[in-house]
């Protein structure tokens, strides 16, 4: 089998890249290792916040139009609280925007993307299939699958997540740095209407984010120590609800679990290079960030937007030419580094018992809340 581009990984990032290249005339293949779950009426525990800029991109891909918008929640305001009463509010109204973000379930968006992929004329879906070997050569990249099939391509794109097989095969030496925190996630029904408001609390126990879902439902991400994570997962649902309710100052009234809590280890990954000759990495295969900003998937989609643009404007260059791929890498470095620095700084600043830092961080929140031009600048940057 011979292609121009082979994408490894059919999650949100890989699938959106294939969709973005649908009208280019390039011969594409997408390799996905798992059968895709069909959406159902239950809630997916994997919830993402998408910026308006990425929502527009998903509309260009045709995926947004296939979504059940009754399962998509707009965020119109965000309220951030320090650990001594300081607060910072962001509002779409303040900058004349209709929303700050859209919240939706991963499974629903993936299904919408794959509906389009199955009809895409320049795309071959290889699924389920597992990669076994990869070599990057001067004239082409070569892949061998575990079932013995061999594939030749001008470019391999690794979109296979934080434990990327593609990254490991190419001897990129950097390894993730653990944060020594776990992200505890769960979905709840709530007693009070959330009114499209997202909340975040910086507490001595960790960083708790509440994301609004359609109806009287929310999703949480609670960044805590591994020991605290284990304790939370061992609680009964009633005890867990009580802990979340107390940590969020009972803001949304009585909570009831609708998807059981789960946890994953948090880490940061910063690669010196996102590309090699005939290889490009996108999404979590290329970078990991702390979830406190909710920007991991948005970084990945911005990778896709940039890589698709570079490939479409390649002129006479080969898709896998390192000179071309470096354009993508250089265009993405600032955004990735900025997000990693911001989340890393906030995590270290707030998960810290130093009394001086505690005072300074809360003064900083209150001061930022009072500087309207600064708040507007931060919000507009987050809309991309």
TrEMBL record:
<dbReference type="GO" id="GO:0071949">
    <property type="term" value="F:FAD binding"/>
</dbReference>
<keyword id="KW-0285">Flavoprotein</keyword>
<dbReference type="GO" id="GO:0006744">
    <property type="term" value="P:ubiquinone biosynthetic process"/>
</dbReference>
<dbReference type="InterPro" id="IPR051205">
    <property type="entry name" value="UbiH/COQ6_monooxygenase"/>
</dbReference>
<dbReference type="GO" id="GO:0004497">
    <property type="term" value="F:monooxygenase activity"/>
</dbReference>
<dbReference type="InterPro" id="IPR010971">
    <property type="entry name" value="UbiH/COQ6"/>
</dbReference>
<keyword id="KW-0560">Oxidoreductase</keyword>
<protein>
    <submittedName>
        <fullName>Ubiquinone biosynthesis hydroxylase, UbiH/UbiF/VisC/COQ6 family</fullName>
    </submittedName>
</protein>
<keyword id="KW-0274">FAD</keyword>
<dbReference type="GO" id="GO:0016705">
    <property type="term" value="F:oxidoreductase activity, acting on paired donors, with incorporation or reduction of molecular oxygen"/>
</dbReference>
<dbReference type="InterPro" id="IPR002938">
    <property type="entry name" value="FAD-bd"/>
</dbReference>
<dbReference type="Pfam" id="PF01494">
    <property type="entry name" value="FAD_binding_3"/>
</dbReference>
<feature type="domain" description="FAD-binding">
    <location>
        <begin position="3"/>
        <end position="333"/>
    </location>
</feature>
<comment type="pathway">
    <text>Cofactor biosynthesis; ubiquinone biosynthesis.</text>
</comment>
<dbReference type="InterPro" id="IPR036188">
    <property type="entry name" value="FAD/NAD-bd_sf"/>
</dbReference>
<keyword id="KW-0830">Ubiquinone</keyword>
<comment type="similarity">
    <text>Belongs to the UbiH/COQ6 family.</text>
</comment>
<keyword id="KW-0503">Monooxygenase</keyword>
């Amino acid at each position: 089998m011979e292609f121009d581009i082979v994408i490894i990984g059919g999650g949100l990032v890989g699938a959106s890249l294939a969709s973005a290249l649908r009208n280019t005339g390039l011969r594409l293949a997408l390799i996905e290792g798992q059968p895709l779950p069909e959406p159902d009426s239950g809630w997916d525990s994997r919830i993402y916040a998408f910026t308006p800029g990425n929502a527009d991109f998903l509309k260009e891909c045709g995926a947004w139009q296939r979504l059940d918008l009754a399962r998509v929640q707009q965020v119109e305001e965000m309220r951030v609280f320090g650990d001594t009463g300081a607060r910072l509010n962001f509002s779409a109204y303040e900058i004349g925007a209709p929303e700050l973000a859209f919240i939706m379930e991963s499974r629903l968006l993936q299904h919408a993307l794959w509906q389009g992929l199955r009809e895409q004329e320049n795309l071959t879906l290889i699924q389920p299939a597992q990669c076994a070997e990869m070599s990057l050569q001067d004239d082409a990249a070569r892949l061998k699958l575990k079932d013995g099939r061999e594939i030749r391509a001008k470019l391999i794109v690794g979109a296979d997540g934080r434990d990327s097989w593609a990254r490991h095969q190419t001897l990129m030496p950097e390894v993730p740095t653990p944060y020594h925190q776990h992200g505890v996630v769960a979905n709840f029904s709530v007693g009070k209407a959330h009114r499209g408001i997202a909340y975040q609390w910086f507490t001595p126990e960790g960083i708790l984010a509440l994301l609004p879902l359609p109806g009287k439902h929310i999703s949480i991400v609670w960044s805590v120590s591994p020991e605290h994570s284990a304790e939370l997962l061992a609680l009964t649902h009633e005890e867990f609800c009580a802990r979340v309710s107390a940590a969020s100052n009972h803001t949304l009234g009585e909570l009831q679990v609708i998807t059981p809590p789960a946890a994953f280890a948090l880490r940061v990954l910063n690669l010196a290079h996102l590309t090699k000759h005939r290889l490009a990495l996108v999404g979590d295969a290329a970078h990991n960030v702390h979830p406190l900003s909710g920007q991991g998937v948005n970084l990945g989609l911005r990778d896709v937007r940039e890589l698709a643009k570079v490939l479409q404007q390649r002129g006479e260059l080969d898709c896998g030419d390192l000179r071309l791929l470096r354009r993508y890498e250089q265009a993405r470095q600032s955004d990735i580094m900025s997000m990693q620095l911001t989340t890393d700084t906030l995590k270290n600043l707030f998960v810290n018992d130093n009394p001086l830092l505690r005072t300074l961080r809360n003064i900083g929140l209150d001061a930022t809340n009072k500087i309207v031009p600064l708040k507007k600048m931060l919000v507009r940057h987050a809309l991309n």
